[in-house]
Amino acid sequence: MQSNFEFLNSHFPVLANFGELAEKYLYSDSNSCLMKLGMIGETIVNLCFTYDRLPLPQDNTAANRINSLFREGMITRDLKEVLHTLRISRNKTTHENYTSIEDGKTLIQMAYGLCEWFMQTYGDWNYQNHPFVMPSETPEKFSSDKQSEKAQEVQLIEEAEKAAAAALVIEKESRKKQSNKAASQRIKSEAETRYLIDVQLRKVGWEADTKKLRYSKGTRPAKGHNMAIAEWPTNSTIGNRGYVDYALFVGMQLVATIEAKAIHKDIPSVIDYQCKDYSRNIRSADNIYQIGTWGSYKVPFTFATNGRPYLEQYDTKSGIWFLDLRQPDHAPKALRGWMSAAGIMELLDKDISARNQDLREMSYDLLRDKDGLNLRAYQIRAIEAAEKAIINGQPNILLAMATGTGKTRTVLGMIYRFLKTGRFRRILFLVDRTSLGEQASDVFKEVKLEDLMTLDEIYNIKGLDDKDIDRETRIQIATVQSMVKRILYNDEDSMPAISDFDLVIIDEAHRGYILDKEMSEDEALYRDQVDYQSKYHYVVEYFDAVKIALTATPALHTTEIFGEPVFKYTYREAVIEGYLVDHDAPHRLPTKLSTEGIHYKKGDTVVRYDPVTGEITNSELLEDELDFDVDDFNRQVITESFNRTVLAEIARDIDPESPDVQGKTLIYAVNDAHADLIVKIMKEIYAEMGVDNDAIMKITGSVGGGNKKKVQEAINRFKNERFPSIVVTVDLLTTGIDVPEITSLVFMRRVKSRILFEQMMGRATRLCPEIHKTHFEIYDPVGVYDSLDPVNTMKPIVANPNATFEQLLVGLEVLENEHQVQNQIDQIIAKLQRKKRQINTEIMEHFISMTGGQDPTQFIADIQQCTPKEGKKQEY
């Protein structure tokens, strides 16, 4: 019989040799067969790197090379799974002397399909797929000389590598396009589908092995075991003679059925016909395993899949489709993975309507307690809006709250209510940086809630370093990056189940500016911004859970995932209400660097402004990045003469030794080397003034050799100690870090992401009564403020800080339009908010006497209750 792998001899004799040997060893020496199949996978991976001149991963293991190809988009997710399967099988043969003819028969078909893909992608692009023919169980006699066999393999590998290194380089996008095309045509056997489903089920805790755990081989449910038993008989007259592909048992309880289908089948239709019929026709002999009856159904849940990872473009022909049969109005839905046994049992126990009613009836008084969480009115409104959306069945919820308005404390209040009422059992709090996770963890441990206990004392919370989920876990704090690794690049024996969490809260959900940042080790998981958003989206959608996302800066890519905000609290509102500080127009420090214009592309959403206030009203519908070459511009910034001139000018205004009076300064650099240059120049400038050397410091991801503990220690010093008072950063302190003492921002780089820019501005918006902070200053020698001004939603509320109250009041008298009147009143209030933070005792007494006994806070509150018409008549 001719080898199935004969077609490879023309281009890849090394693979033809491994394939032919695997066929010959299949029945006589399955250990060697599995070893050769593993070598096919490893050789293909190595040749991909050579053909495409790809850099090897820093930790150059076989698993990481496969993951790197997937990350680069050179292989699809199902090819990644095949390659990992071949790799793991080979490891077992090497370390455990593993043998299995059945596995050999399955994996040889997978390796054959992989080789056809490789031929179509790296060899003959016109090659046509051919069906695999399983070798006969009575093969020709085969005698092997392992030593000469090994020598030939080494020679063939060496020749293949030389040929790959000498081959013409194919443009990367063309290669990826061809790879995807070939992958979509790859013939996937039913045995491969079953094998991969077995692996997936085992990873979330089920005992699954299609070849061994079969009804026909005597496998039956057992107490203490969560089993996927293959080919379970039913009384159905359709499909595979009434045998359902898998029956899922939790102990002795039949909880679900699974039907596995060929890749070209429409999966929802499989649910409508076969899955429903199997679930109706459970045999009377199996009544002992039933846990209930729901109409005509004797099983509560059913699944259908073809083993293909879920892809939106192949919506009905990919993913794992699930139907809850307990209610007739439930619709089938696509899942990104499998439920665990614990997740299925929790779903069975859940009474959503009763828990929603508990949520409606629970008072908010505890959240308002001044000795506890002490939430503000707008924070309570945010929680109310989120709860209303949840009760109405909305799966994705977006809350937009300005930077510095207490999103973490708002989340804490929400989490407490959700867990207290039992509306959600287990919550994932997802952050994009370790420092943000630690910051949230600190809040959970410090703020008193019920009976003077913190959330951490009331409920079991797992931190960033603890990946294990158990039944007692109620809150898990994790980074997006760690979840990408655990879900998309998982080469371990276990992984998160989609049912592990029933609520995912996403902090800083804007995350659209990866290209404007240094690529840390974690961020090297992504090729570019589009790839980041794709993987970010995948992680968010992976869990079968309600999602609540929080951001200060919603943009189009955020609303495409979570929908438009159900609640918004803007920077303008927060300044007027006295919860954030305003800023003045920037110190522009004109330089020779030219100002770059912003270019809008055809079809872009047009920015809508409030005609009176100038505030942008549709920021959540705008693309994040604007069209100008920020990298080229920033290269011009990294010159010592430019930096020395600009920094000498800025140093005249900033006294590093008076942070308790003047506040602290944050400088944004282009990259780590630029940050070093700025620190060097600043230390030299201030050395002439006798300033302490410790006052100026760089805090980037490279601190302490990239040691995360050292980085966090540096951040804590900036937050809690007198020095450093001037910090230079690149991206580490651009989002989510709270240092209220910051009163000056210095932009020594441009960005093209309006979200990143507003996050950078947000570092200085917080109140700081200890230093009587009234506003913050911006130094902008590179023109970033003006370049992003058309789309900036954080405009100064007090348009002219030099305008006196008298001038503002005169303006109020002549205005008639209600909207214009309100805007003028807002400016008066914003100016009062500034002034009240530095009023001395004498002026305070005078103010109270002039306002009939009201201090500035009470006076402002009264004005805010007025309509524009009433406000105009108010005595000021």
Task: Report on this structure.
The protein is of the alpha/beta class and 876 residues long. The chain has five domains: 4-187, no CATH class; 191-349, tt1808, chain A (Alpha-Beta Complex), CATH 3.90.1570; 377-569, P-loop containing nucleotide triphosphate hydrolases (Rossmann fold, 3-Layer(aba) Sandwich); 582-591 and 622-791, Rossmann fold (3-Layer(aba) Sandwich); 805-873, no CATH class. The strands form three sheets. It has a seven-stranded mixed beta sheet with strand order 1-2-3-4-5-6-7. A seven-stranded parallel beta sheet has the order 10-11-9-12-13-8-14, sandwiched between helices. Strands 15-20-19-16-18-17 form a six-stranded parallel beta sheet. The radius of gyration is 32 Å and the shape is globular.
Summarize the structure.
The protein has 876 residues and is α/β, with parallel strands linked by helices.
CATH C-level of the largest domain? Alpha Beta
Topology-level CATH name of the largest domain: Rossmann fold
Task: Give the name of the CATH superfamily of the largest domain.
Answer: P-loop containing nucleotide triphosphate hydrolases
CATH architecture of the largest domain: 3-Layer(aba) Sandwich
Indicate the radius of gyration in whole angstroms.
32 Å
DSSP summary, beta strand count: 20
Low-confidence stretches: 512-530, 592-604
Overall structural class, as computed from helix and strand content, comes to alpha/beta
Number of helices: 32
Mind summarizing the main beta sheet?
7 strands, mixed
The CA-CA distance between the termini, in Å, is: 100 Å
Number of domains: 5
Q: Strands of the largest sheet, in order across it? A: 1-2-3-4-5-6-7
Portion of residues within helices? 40-55%
Shape: globular
Mean pLDDT: 87
